[in-house]
Amino acid sequence: MMDDIPEELERYFNDYRMILVDIKDIDTAYIDDQETRDMIYAIQSIYDVEKKDMEQILLTKEAALTAGYITKSKWLIEEARQDKEEINMCEAMERYAQRKVEEGKRIGREQGKQEEKRNVVVLLLTKKLGKLSDQIIHLIETSSTERINQLMIQIFDIENEDDIIKFIH
Length: 169
Prior knowledge:
Layout: H1 34-47, E1 58-60, H2 61-71, H3 74-80, E2 86-88, H4 89-129, H5 134-141, H6 145-154, H7 161-168
Antiparallel strand pairs: 1-2
Helix pairs in contact: 1-2, 2-3, 4-6
């Protein structure tokens, strides 16, 4: 791995061969142990979902935990920590996908509420002060939820755009 090692340091370096195998390239047909074969197949499936048939993969808790840690798949680790003897990879992935969809919907709703709140603040301030500068509108649109909430509380005390800047910052 190292080239051009100074002569005085050569004795401190081992020059050994290392064979690295990419787990994605292992042919599981040559693995005798069923649990190991299933675990490697599951790992390959996680890395390449479109090419693997997850329905036929059943993992023990230990194999699922190992596959989860290797692939850094928190959803699989969570599945393995439940009180189940076997984890069906297809069902586990479907539950994970459903949670992600629900989380996306929740985040979308929350973002929609925050955007609406910003729009209301701009509308109220426009009604109170007249046309707002593009800078102030941008400042409101990019402010945190906490800042927008503070601005809404102080809206009756705002007399000009400088007050808006003061309350947001």
